[in-house]
């Protein structure tokens, strides 16, 4: 192909390929969301629009029994209103899973960011080993779940145990995302400049290094949260009683409910992922500045 033909058709081919790829990836999501408002889905396309019964069943606003039981509702907080108390209710599994995943992300931030900085900034004996150990939990959730269950049997049955497990499973994604950002920065020059102006090392790290690595930290937090919220294998092995993690709730609906109810459950999870992703991005743009006002 001549250069002129390459310039003429090359951009069009790339654009069409991009749009075809995006459409191929988005089509199942759109079809699932549409099916959540249908009464049946027996063929290629759902039929019987428009109904909200699937969403009412999933959110616990309709009577359900057995393996198809929906979310329970629990009070998030209470407000005094006159002589009465107004309680704000939220779906229990939803609030529980969001809290678990965010707890895991918090641990990943506190532990993963300093590890990524140390590996990127300093040369020290055993650096390769530290780098390898930091990505060691990058194993299937079943393997880590069994190991975690045997090593910490008392901790495993608690909510905190799930948080720690999620953080162990997803820590490599935080370390790799932040390490990649750090490696693109002149860390030595930034740190030495801040120290020459009288800043202590903790202050230089928190007010100069961390804000400049904001995009990598936010990206790592989004990845860790999304993967932790959808973690099924580890949750299935470790969870024993109480409120179910959202991944187990989705599995129950997918396995035992109709296609349309399963579509509503999956669509709900997708909207949660989008909402929390936008929230974390907003926090990263506006509230993730450790320098203060």
UniProtKB/TrEMBL annotation:
Q: Which GO terms describe its cellular component?
A: plasma membrane
The alphabetical list of record keywords is: Cell inner membrane, Cell membrane, Membrane, Transmembrane, Transmembrane helix, Transport
GO BP terms in the entry: transmembrane transport
Residue intervals passing through the bilayer:
12-38, 94-117, 129-149, 155-178, 217-239, 259-280
Q: Topology in the membrane?
A: Multi-pass membrane protein
Give residue ranges for domain ABC transmembrane type-1: 94-280
The name under which this protein is listed is ABC-type transport system permease protein
| Gene source species | Haloferax gibbonsii (strain ATCC 33959 / DSM 4427 / JCM 8863 / NBRC 102184 / NCIMB 2188 / Ma 2.38)
């Amino acid at each position: 192909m001549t250069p002129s033909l390459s310039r003429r058709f090359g951009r069009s081919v790339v654009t069409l390929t991009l749009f075809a790829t995006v459409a191929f990836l988005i089509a199942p999501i759109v079809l699932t969301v549409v099916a959540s408002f249908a009464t049946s889905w027996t063929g290629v396309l759902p039929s019987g629009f428009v109904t909200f019964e699937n969403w009412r069943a999933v959110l616990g606003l309709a009577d359900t029994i057995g393996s198809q039981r929906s979310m329970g509702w629990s009070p998030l907080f209470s407000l005094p209103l006159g002589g009465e108390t107004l309680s704000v209710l939220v779906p229990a599994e939803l609030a529980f899973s969001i809290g678990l995943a965010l707890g895991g992300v918090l641990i990943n931030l506190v532990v993963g960011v300093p590890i990524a900085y140390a590996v990127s900034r300093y040369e020290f004996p055993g650096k390769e080993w530290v780098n390898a150990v930091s990505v060691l939990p990058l194993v299937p959730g079943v393997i880590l779940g069994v190991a975690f269950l045997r090593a910490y049997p008392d901790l495993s049955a608690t909510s905190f145990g799930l948080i720690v497990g999620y953080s162990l499973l997803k820590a490599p994604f935080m370390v790799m995302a932040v390490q990649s950002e750090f490696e693109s920065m002149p860390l030595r020059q930034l740190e030495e400049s801040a120290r020459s102006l009288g800043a202590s090392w903790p202050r230089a790290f928190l007010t100069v290094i961390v804000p400049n690595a904001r995009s990598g930290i936010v990206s790592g937090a989004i990845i860790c949260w999304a993967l932790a919220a959808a973690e099924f294998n580890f949750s299935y092995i470790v969870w024993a009683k109480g409120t179910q993690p959202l991944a187990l709730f989705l599995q129950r609906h997918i396995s035992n409910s109709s296609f349309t109810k399963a579509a509503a459950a999956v669509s709900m999870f997708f909207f949660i992922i989008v909402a929390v992703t936008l929230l974390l991005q907003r926090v990263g743009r506006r509230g993730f500045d450790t320098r203060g006002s």
